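User: Good morning. I'm curious how adenosine-5'-diphosphate would be positioned relative to this chain. Could you predict the structure with it bound?
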Amino acid sequence: MKHIRKVLIANRGEIALRIQRTCRELGIATVAVYSEADRDAPHVREADEAVLIGPAPASESYLQGVRLIEAALGTGADALHPGYGFLSENAGFAERCIEAGLIFIGPSPTSIRGMGSKSAARQLMVREGVPVVPGYDGSDQSVETLQEEALKIGFPLLIKASAGGGGKGMRIVREPAQLKGSLEAARREAKGAFGDDSLLLERYIDCPRHVEFQILGDMHGTLLHLFERECSIQRRHQKILEETPSPALTPELRARMADAALKAGRAIGYYGAGTVEFILDPEGRFYFLEVNTRLQVEHPVTEAVTGLDLVRLQLQVAEGQKLSLSQAELKQRGHAVEARVYAEDPEHGFLPSTGRLVDWHLPPLPGVRVDSGVETGSEVGIHYDPMLAKIIAWGDNRLESHRRLARALERLSVMGVKTNRDFLLRTIRHPAYLEGALHTHFIQAHLSQEEDAHHPERDAQAMAACVVTLHLERKQRTQAGDGSGPGLTLLPGWRNNRFRDPLVALRIGDAALEVSYRAVTRELFRVMAGFAFMEVRLVQADLPELRLEINGTQRTFRVQRERDILHVWSALGMVSVTVLPDFPEASRVQDPGDTLSPMPGRVLKLRVKPGDTVRRGQPLVTLEAMKMEHTLEAPFDAVVEKVHVQEGQQVNAGEQLLHLCEQNA
Ligand code: ADP
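Assistant: Good morning! Here's the predicted structure, ligand included:
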């Protein structure tokens, strides 16, 4: 038996951190690897040592097998953990690790290779008596044979690239007329993407569930299953919510599927942790899809209900230890669910969202585990998977785990990039989801893509939190006495007028609004936002957190600034509020005749006096700020009703300069 003393983790982000955590617990030293883009990443800082392996693109760093092995040998690591993704299912890489004298923490290269071709895997499963979707996986790949076989299978039909993976290279054919064209296109695609144009035909199962089994084996012939995970909630074949136990399995069906999973594992001499994937049709028939020969993203839900640490078990197996568990003692305790939080924009086709995280905060909560690779300040770039974190919630039953998950998602403050946080919340609150009526097209069937942006209470309260924040910021600046003069202590968009309550112009989405407020005492504010009147009491300020009592209800708010945007989180949801530097536009909504100063400055020249008639575009007043002149023009034909300022006077941004009375021609 070998002993592992130091592990190189050939991965990044949350999975690298996850593996490090167990290594630390076991007293095993860790070596991280990083690309130039990840120099300051948490997974690098947390490791005992870390090796730079190349530029940002994964193809030049995390996928450079030779460099990874060199880094392991150079730091004296005796084992390599591939994580998932990247090179984790690359049999050649596993072989090279072993040849270099490293322990590869995963199954044997032969097992990995055995599952590399979907057709070969299917043929093997048929021989072992594991059910596969009715279809064709033969070696005769002539168009005539494929067409003939397709007609036998019937429609709808799914064409898969035998060498495919990650949901790529699949095509649905709904009717015979599409068949020939689809076969040709699929072949071209497969050749281009995988360098292999072998195709596989399967009956397309409508609205199936995705149910997979965790398996675990050692090198001494023990192979166990650690129950199922249901991963039916997918978007573009990407899992976003995973749970265990599956609401669809009876004990009897679970036993049959587990049996099939173990058969599949035995057929390829499996050791280490792996996953056997099935689809389950609405009639309760299940079919083998594939074996993933690595740890899965969603492994924490299995850990939550079995109480096991899968990485610990992987390390023990890799050292050649015998598993000390028996199938009979494994139990599913309670229910667990995982949500994947992605940096993506649900309101714009789920495109990846990039930027700097100005806030990432989730307090510890009972029954909740967070596996994340980011922190406040992290840059979310274009080079890697946009998954920011996984939130895993456990409970006595499905309702309790989901309640805990919903609460954790609500409490998560993530600012600076768009995320699917609210989309996840909407999904798990959907009545069909609550009933457990899941299938792989659930999202298309039940959830519209656009978030309902209209949420008046959330928005009004966010504005109140902004007003208090701006007020505190201003006070801080005034007290700091930075010598910049009274004019500059005022924030853009701020109007301080003796005759009126201060006003601030804010924008949420497309809606611009003037919010007026009065600081009655140091703690008490009266805030008017549109038609909402709020009595706001500042209970506690522990920036970026504010505890506010708004009309008698206390809530915590987190407010973080990103230039002129204030991101506000509260239990009501998250919203980004822009502080408008430019007053006239916002105020026109209220009174089109008000002419307000767009900036702090000095009145250089008044070009009109009360009673003057002006034409649209005629100069009204010239201001001077930072040695630049700026002339305001009449927005329409009007009579000058009032002039509020004098030449030479200092004015603030948003201060009223004059008032016009519109003249209709
Ligand atoms: P990949 O290796 O590319 O991930 P899989 O064969 O594992 O491909 O299938 C990925 C997903 O595609 C499954 O989770 C399921 O949602 C869907 N799928 C695969 N085969 C079928 C089928 N025969 N009928 C319906 N859906 C399928």
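The pocket of adenosine-5'-diphosphate is lined by residues 133, 158, 164-168, 202, 204-205, 208, 210, 237, 277, 279, 289-290, 440 (CB under 6 Å). The longest strand covers residues 223-235.
Let me know if you'd like a different ligand tried.
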